[in-house]
Amino acid sequence: MGFRTTAFRRVRNQVCKRIARRLRTLALADFDAYRHRLATDPEEWRRLDTFCRITISRFCRDRPVFDWLERVGLPALADAAVATGRKKLFCWSAGCGSGEEPYTLRILWDLCLADRFPSLSLDIVASDADSGVLERARCAVYSAGCLREVPRDWIERAFVARDDQYRLRRTFRHGVQFVRQDIRQKLPAGRFDLVLCRNLVFTYFDEAVQRRLLTRITSRMTNHGILVIGRRETLPGGVDGFKIAKGVPGIFRFASNQRHNHERPAG
Hints:
Elements: H1 12-26, H2 31-40, H3 43-51, H4 63-83, E1 88-94, H5 100-113, E2 121-128, H6 131-139, E3 141-143, H7 152-158, E4 159-162, E5 165-168, E6 176-180, E7 192-196, H8 201-204, H9 207-218, E8 221-228, E9 242-244, E10 251-254
Parallel strand pairs: 1-2, 1-7, 2-6, 7-8
Antiparallel strand pairs: 3-5, 4-5, 8-10, 9-10
Helix pairs in contact: 4-5
């Protein structure tokens, strides 16, 4: 399946419980019986793949990343865009889960940077393979625990609190498009100035899959764009063009010899 078994060490029980429930549904005696089922039913591999999806997310997760994007990363991308007469910055949140990451970007831009760059708008594509978490993302209702790293003034300005739940105001959902895609099979169209691919490809997949997907990710990046991965993740060897940014682990600037059109193609 292309996974690294070591990546599941902390979440092994969660995955095994999902498989155990599947065994009960199928009336199978043990894991050996399930292996036989996999050998005789190719469709079961698709179900097993869904059991291995781990979604752990919250707003402003790894806060220093978003502090850096506010102070350094997004202003640099915006300055470059304005200098070339562009009207939009394009961002992609890969493995977006319930939407906390792309919505954090939206809030950050609207509250902290939009007034500084009035001629520029932020366009965000957020992708995930799980239709269930994407539906929750579109509803944009979260528990208090999901907001524990969010600045208090952001909460007051961007959310409506009701019965221990926080609903993101509609004005902070604009420009965020959610799409169901498995990154191993399909990527969003166009090119992106900022790609966030955190705690997904470079945690759960083996090195061969990582290299293949990193090559495909670079094909979606603008020249001098920014790639953000998890702070404990590393990029695999064999893919050129990335230079680590100073100050925060997991942030890379991309420079390609090829010239790319910065605007996304229609559709």
